[in-house]
Design goal:
393 residues, four-stranded antiparallel β-sheet, 13 helices, 16 strands, 36% helix, Alpha-Beta Plaits
Length: 393
């Protein structure tokens, strides 16, 4: 962790143009981190959302709350003005993966340069940085740019509710800055793998295992195994496609042919045509299962596109690399295997720049941490990028 601190201090050593009140930021981060706000906890998410809603209203921004209870909490849309077109969207999420009661067991704490707590880097750090960026926005930038800030309540479970709200804004937006944590080596993110998620049930016919030729028993577990082997064969280092059968369940006893089994699979990929390859295999396997007398119940089949830069996006990333270099900021980009709202926003057209939140890691675990001395540098980096958008308008 010390190495990361040195790297970040070196990368942003020459950026002194802007400052923020770090003590206030950390005090507010403690308050927010100590609120349980799992995706399925509308009450907790509402409490976090209220903090931001109140702050943006004090700034004079328009605040609209879209309520999704009891599924999840509210989605906040904050705009500096109503507009038919937006220059920039900033987006962060309010939810965490930690169940109610976690904050009492494992509250926010600071040890030296490191802050710990549930959601401290995924991503209450980034959502709070968004708020501070827009609160300190120079008047001339605020006048030039139409800006929308989105606070999403269900990113950790796929943004199924919130995407219906922020999608229409993404359609009329040029750029989207996403405040997931920056990489531990200071990298930003412009490429993310896509994902196909499969949850499937297999329905066979139970019977005594010693009489399968007489009783016509059909094993759902055996059929599940066929699927596992076939899906696993999609994995390819050359195509950068990974397959993980994360859950496989079925059967009750060794002498009973299982009439029920279930798998949950996550397939991650970078190539745009992988969704077609996966779908073709799933259709083939389903037909083969049914021909063997095994029913297949596709409980869920979700697909998110990979985040890959467009030519226009590549030009922009080259531009900001030169811009930052001129200001003594050395930025770099690194692909990520995990999903974010960028996977959902990019198909609408905006150029997406992700990983703009302060650096943290070990997310979704009790070791989740934030490097405090990266807060100010990432604040300054965003200020440079937003000022550039205004200057080029």
């Amino acid at each position: 962790m010390t190495q990361n601190i040195i790297i970040m201090s070196t990368i942003f050593a020459d950026t002194e143009d802007y400052t923020m009140d770090l003590n206030t930021y950390l005090s507010q981060l403690e308050y927010l981190t100590n609120i349980d706000s799992c995706s399925d906890d509308p009450e907790g998410i509402k409490k976090v959302a209220d903090f931001f809603a109140e702050g943006f209203r004090e700034m004079g921004w328009n605040v609209t709350e879209h309520d999704f209870a009891p599924k999840t909490g509210p989605c906040l849309i904050c705009t500096n003005r109503e507009a038919d077109h937006y220059d920039l969207m900033l987006i962060g999420h309010l939810d965490t993966v930690f169940p109610k009661g976690t904050c009492a067991e494992w509250p926010f704490r600071i040890e030296g340069n490191v802050a710990y707590g549930p959601g401290v880097s995924d991503m209450k750090n980034g959502s709070l940085l968004m708020y501070h960026l827009l609160r300190e926005l120079p008047a001339d930038v605020n006048e030039k740019l139409n800006i929308v800030a989105v606070f999403n309540p269900d990113e950790e479970i796929g943004s199924h509710c919130s995407r219906t709200v922020y999608g229409p804004y993404a359609q009329k937006c040029d750029y989207a800055f996403l405040y997931e944590s920056g990489g531990t080596n200071g990298t930003l993110c412009v490429e993310r793998k896509g994902c196909v998620g499969i949850t499937a049930e297999f329905i066979g016919k139970a019977g005594h295992c010693g009489y399968v030729f007489e009783n016509g028993a059909k094993s759902a577990v055996s059929e599940m195994a066929r699927w596992i082997v076939a899906l696993d064969a999609l994995q390819s280092r050359e195509r950068n496609t990974t397959v993980n059968v994360g859950v496989a369940r079925g059967g009750t006893k060794t002498n009973v042919v299982a009439d029920h089994a279930r798998i949950q699979v996550s397939i991650r990929f970078t190539a745009a045509d992988e969704t077609e390859r996966v779908k073709a295999l799933v259709d083939k396997l389903t037909a083969e299962s049914e021909a063997r007398g095994i029913g297949v119940n596709m409980i869920s089949y979700t697909s998110s596109q990979a985040l890959n830069p467009t030519e226009k996006g590549k030009e922009y990333f080259e531009h900001i690399t030169r811009l930052c270099r001129e200001k003594g900021i050395n930025i770099a980009f690194k692909p990520r295997g995990g999903l974010s709202d960028a996977n959902l926003i990019a198909p609408f057209g905006p150029i997406c720049l992700d990983g703009l939140g302060p650096v943290g890691d070990d997310c979704h675990s009790r070791d989740e941490y934030l490097l405090i001395d990266t807060v100010q540098p990432f604040f300054e980096l965003s200020r440079v990028l937003i000022q550039d958008l205004a200057d080029r308008k």
